[in-house]
Amino acid sequence: MAEDLVLDTIIRDWVLIPLSVVMVLIGILRYFISKLMRSSTQAPPGNEAVGAKIFKTKCAPNFESFESKSRPS
């Protein structure tokens, strides 16, 4: 009553094999694109202090105004 499901060789050769090859190539392409998008250069050591100073100078006026409002004179 139930017949075995058989894959036609023409479908296998012209659809499944090229589709599998395309999927592998897309995976390889995604790998290299993500590798190119990652930053390959690292910041030289010592830049953390410069970044902290910039952050403090940008935020210092805000902290001073907050402290002067919260403290009674």
Automatic annotation (TrEMBL):
It comes from Nicotiana attenuata. Pfam families: EMC3_TMCO1 (PF01956). The keyword Transmembrane applies. The chain crosses the membrane at residues 14-33. It is found in: Membrane. Keywords: Membrane, Transmembrane, Transmembrane helix. GO terms for biological process: protein folding in endoplasmic reticulum. Its main location: membrane. Belongs to the EMC3 family. GO terms for cellular component: EMC complex. It is a multi-pass membrane protein. It comes from the Eukaryota. Signal peptide: none annotated. This is ER membrane protein complex subunit 3.
